[in-house]
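Question: Hello, beginner here. Any chance you could explain the protein record under this note? Any guidance would be welcome.
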Amino acid sequence: MVGPGEADLMQCSKGRPGASMSGKLGCLQLVAAIGLAAVPLAVARAQSLTPAERAGIDSAVSGILAGTGAPSASIAVVRQGTIVYEQAYGNARINPGVPATSAMRYAIGSVTKQFTASAILLLAEAGKLSLDDKVSKWLPRLTRADEISIRQLLSMTAGYQDYWPQDYVFTGMERPVAPEAIMQRWAAKPLDFDPGTRWQYSNTNYVVAAAIAERVAGMPLMEFMRRRIFAPLGMTSVTDFDAGPLGSQDAGPYLRNAIGPLRSPPKEASGWLFGAGHLAMTAHDLALWDISVMNRSLLRFPSYQAQQTDILLRNGLSTRYGLGVSVGSGVGARRRLSHGGAVSGYTTANDVYPDNRAAVVVFTNIYPGAAGAPEQIAGRIAGIIFARTDTAAVAAGELARRIYDGLAKGTIDPALLSENARAYFTSEVVADYAASLGRLGIPAEFTQTGESLRGGMTIRNYRIRVGGIVLDLTTMTLPDGRIEQYLIARAG
């Protein structure tokens, strides 16, 4: 028996190749509505953040903004494939101060590259090009274009020299430029290395890839992205930052010279961000993109596989980079697809944990001048959202804190330790721990920052903020739960 809405859903599932864009969007909306209606309340509650988790995130973000001097941050958190938290902090604009809100857009810089790569993959799915096609098929005048593939462009293994390695807007960037001029100057000169032999980050690769995408699609890249990516995913806030600065209703850009005051930065003129860093949006909309990556709802499975596979060099060395995304691991050795972004006045961190159906989006409105703020925030948030789902990690963290409190008082329970650890904690060692930790007081922070396996043991790393300093703690735990190693050192 077909339930309410299921008949319409069955019609949508048949594909209807000739359906209009509005018809396809209607199907997507219907699927979403039925899916949401079918989610049990208990499941929805399990996805949401607890008050303690929200407070922990708020405290972490506020602390990092204060420590780095970034004027504002906007975040979105995804758990179990659902956006569970959106928040903004600090001032989006200064003099006069305007508080940041989640509705404000920020430029996302090089996070744009995964969208450009996805546009290429959509064209490949349509049979209009292949990742192994050579650049010479469309741009024969570029250096060694008959040797360089589209895959090598997207994976940063082509050899074309980066046109923007600087962390500031150089003089030439204050004048408009055509993509052809960028390619003529930086992709028509000798390569930095033979194709496929090295990995080197290069914005030039993505200008070339974007130019190819436009020629194949027969329309401007931004228009193609709107039709094939943003509209289907409901990403309504996206704008072309390459065409001009964001408006007064959005976050303003800032920089800091050394540790001086916040100042307004120069804006890259039109053309300089084409394909490599031209997008701006809300954190909410970037989170929608991340959810589509987890659900594999926009591209076909082989395309996602190609994008998320670590590219190897000719000699077999790993690049730890796919097609527009870094491929590696994050909190608890979980698989993570990530990319940072930086354009004049804005920085971004976007971390997706596809196997865990989680993601963290972080925007800040300063560059240069607050190095690493988005990455710090993203790491702290990931540690918080994964802590509840890993009961072993929670228990280990509680034990680690209990041992710390004991050592600060000059005691340690031998029953918690392995034979090696008991031998290590001599009376002298315990006395040194007590003398150095006891005077610092109660830790203001005790957070797990990493987890790995080695020698049959679980290794966990913690950051401890206490007495105005930061400490690193490394523990090694045997399968039976006993501690093999507990070492504290001052963070570098």
About this structure: The first strand starts at residue 72 and ends at 79. The domain at 56-387 is CATH 3.40.710.10 (Beta-lactamase).
